[in-house]
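lol ok so funny story. i was supposed to be doing the assay writeup but got distracted and ended up predicting the structure for this chain instead. priorities right. anyway since i did it might as well share w the group, maybe its usefull for someone
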Amino acid sequence: MTDDAGRAERRARLLLAGVIALGVLLRLAVARAQGFPTDVGTFEAWAERLASVGPGRFYEPGYFSDYPPAFLYVLWLLGAFLDGEPLRLAIKAISVPADIAIALLAARLLWSFAGRAYGIAAAAIWMLQPGPIFAGPYWGQVDAIGTVPVLGSLLAAGARRWWLAGVLGAIAALVKPQFGVALFIVVAAALIEFVREARWRPSAQAVGAAAATAYVVSIPFWGPDPTRIVGEIFALVRSAAETYPYTSLYAFNPWSIFYDFWQPDGALVVFGALALVAGLIAACIPLWWRRDTAILLACGAFAAMAFYFLPTRAHERYLFPAFALALPFAAARARAFVPYAVLAVAFALSLYFAFTRYQQYVDLRVPAFVEATLFSRAGQIAIALLMIGAAAYLVWRLVRSDARLEADATWAVRVPLAPRASWTLPAGLGPGRLPTRRDLTIAFLVALAVLVTRGYRLDWPREMYFDEVYHARTAFELLAQREPYEWTHPHLAKEIMALGILALGDDRVVGHEPALPQGAPTAFVVSNDGTRAYVTNDFEVVVQARGGSPRGRALGVPARALAIRGDHVIAMTDTTLAVVPFAEVPSNTPIQQVTLPFAGATSLSVAGDQVVVGGAQGIAVYPSLDATPQVIIQPTVALTEKPDGSEIFALDPQGVVHEIASDTLTEKRALTGGQIGTAIAFVAPSLSSDRIFVARADAPVVDTWDLETGGHDQVRLSNARTGTVAAATALASVPRTQFVYALAGGQLVVIEPRGGSAFASIGVTGRFLGVDGEADKLVVAGPAGADLVETGRNALAWRLPGVLFAAMLAFFLVLLARRLFASAILPALVGVVVLAESSMYAQARIGMNDIYVGALIVAGWYFVVAAYRPRGSAVRDILIAGLLFGLAAAAKWAAFYAIAGLALATIAVTAWAYERGRPGTGGPLDLLAGRGRNAALLFASFAIIPTAIYLGSYLPWYGGPTIPYGWNIVELTQQMYWYHSGLTAPHPAGSPWWSWPLVLKPVYWYLGQASDGENGYIYDAGNVVLFWGGIVAFAWCTIAAGRGRRLRLLLPVRLGAAVPWSAGGDVLHPSDLDLRLPVLSDIRVQSPDRLLVQPDHALWSPRSVARGRGWGGDRVLHRRAENTRATLA
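and the output, tada:
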């Protein structure tokens, strides 16, 4: 074999493997669908029954099963090893190996008779046509399994292996009775051999082998008695035929035209049976003259069509074997391809119609306009007529002249008369090199610029926004050892955020104010602007501005509670309210006094002009201090209000919280489930429901209620993070962060409100709490002074790790550009694009997992590329890449798609070297390098290591309180998959993919007040220019890589597809695309790079165009004419 011939043979094998692999991927993609639950559930039940009781008791009286034994062996094997969801998925995908076998059998047949190209075409036609995909892995049916022995039986007969033909024909008939057409054709051909050629061995071998096979296969189910076996098989076939006594079970045959579907066929069944017998006899007539492989396949196809079009009671899938048997003719004979293609498309459409009739079982729906037109009664008749016509024309073509396996001249490959032009790439897009000190400096400066630009005012907003309410919240839950709320993604990113909170949250005392010279405080309050108000043990009201000196403003006020409204202090005594101004007034000026309607007041709350006082005798509500109060009899220990004063929440002595409407003073509901309490706080977390917190009097526990659902939960203040603390005596909520602070003895416990996570404990000396909102401080006042606790650093703490990973992402993008391409300016351009991409900017600043997985994926790809020109060891680079991919997988499942992309690259590299006749020379990704050692290294690096890291990252979850719902790792993974695959509900940030290029609907992440009366907005919109530039560069790189035969240009294209996004049923918004943006950055700058590095030529000048150096000329893509020759496949 010459070098050219050998290379053509290898290329053909790779193409064959490629089309089969593509078909397998399509089938696996649809296998996850629900399918037809009744069919799939029946197969599951049979598999489990076989595994539990064995074949001998399977066909017990009263148990439904209309399948002969052959297919049950497959179910028996699956049921013995699988259960539950794995069993369901295995049954859904069980037809995939059969489809591969059909494609290989057809390709092998044509490979020798017609040529390589026709074998590849046969495999492609089968693997990519919609009918087998829909009927098999989507529907969950198994017609492909029975079709394999049908096809094999006729091929064996054509090869004169009559005994094998009988064995396979019997197996096919014992899968489903309609697959017995193969045995019928084989026996007919053998009998004709006896009549025409006086050869008795074919008949004896075929019939004897078929009978022996049927007997052996049936023994485990019905025992060794042959008469019982025959009786049971006939009874099974008769029972199956009588199960559905209707004209047509969605088979688009003449009965469906004249009598419609599912009509009683009592008066028609005999005529249908006679038509079937006549059709089967007619199918055998060509065997009288020829009994070669081609005519056997053609007659088998005729018989399969007869089973579909002629009898009543035909199912929609009875035509399935005909497509496999006619496949070689469709690939090799151009005139047979047209009716085959028409029939295949109409058959797929008929399956879609039949499947969607069972709306009570399936989740697939037909669009209304299709239902009203194509699937109307007239449309059904049109489809049936089209299928009958296409089948008749195909039969006519095969009978006339096309029942041959030799290719006709129409499909021949012609030798080009003119030389073919190929392209080479511009110098700037040539192979890259090791990063130099200059490249490292550029990468470092870009990373530093990312840190500065993304880190600016990173602590705003102080509260959580967008999906931080999932990811950042869960980081606090992990710290508090509570069950995680966000379990639908791997948690490495959340663990890193938790580390950021520990390192940078700054939950500590950061300052101290000295003790009051006027005496120890007995009541205390702080306004949002930092003004402090005290009542001392000498009954003096003291006012102190933040950082100022304490000033006495009133004497003789035995206040039990204080509040600040405007520039006044409202002091509540046992029986009165005293209004004390901030400003100094003459000593003889009387203080405004308001007498309460009851004595024994214990609680005071102010919201706007409204003042609410609570005590043991009830609640008094003052719309203003000049108005007459409204009183409700509700004993109260503590109370709080909504910020707008619309609702009051009163804690009674029994621990019940009463929700009271302020305007009517009527109770809306009572929140039960708690215990006797000492303090209460209202919290309104962003993007979450409002909550009430109550400190228990007898235990270090805070009861919480969700005001939207009424649900009750408990926050235990003592845990591994906070240590052992006492019961809380005071609560405070910080409006900017909505965090709750519980004063428990000498400890201040910090609580994230959404998850009720007590994650930090701070030693303090005071006994009163006040919030200095503008200074982001919690003031803890006591006799020894006031401790100042930082409250505004947690937002920065959980976001800053993302900015660090964004800098890492930018750093490796620049170096990746250096590794991939020769241009010296391209790495800097990549850095500019990274800085200019607004979506990358937004993603870096939010506490979500996308920036983490994106950075780790790109870093992993960098080391994969670096392995081809390593500084030290290529093995080390591959291992580092596997480590990074594993960490990425522990942050988000998208990394597994990146690993799948790497697997495709590995296969492509291996195939490339194999096709060129140099297997094992493809470099670090070549599976054949090192006589298997490299394959072992790649498997360890990109399968074992990522899986170990992913599973190992979950080890701290198990055996502790952070495991969600008590699941194990398998159950958790199932729930994660089901959650994301079923996430189809409308989303407020969702938008159709076609709106993204024009940014018609950006994703608004935050809208709220920033500071100084200004509003703050955060939205993820992306850069329209760079978006479109990326699309153009994608297309350019793909074409250039193909024409220039440069795989490194395909690498960024593969990178871009590494992080999948779907335009299907899942919830979708543009941020799903954000992980592609780092890859687009490399690709966008490739096209203009050549223009920038060749400034000495005016690419658009008339002279340069005349010389062929313009855009499209040899300065951009050089053309080199070379003599080529084409060989016939």
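The chain has 36 helices and 34 strands. The CA atoms of residues 674 and 1026 lie 56 Å apart.
back to the writeup now i swear
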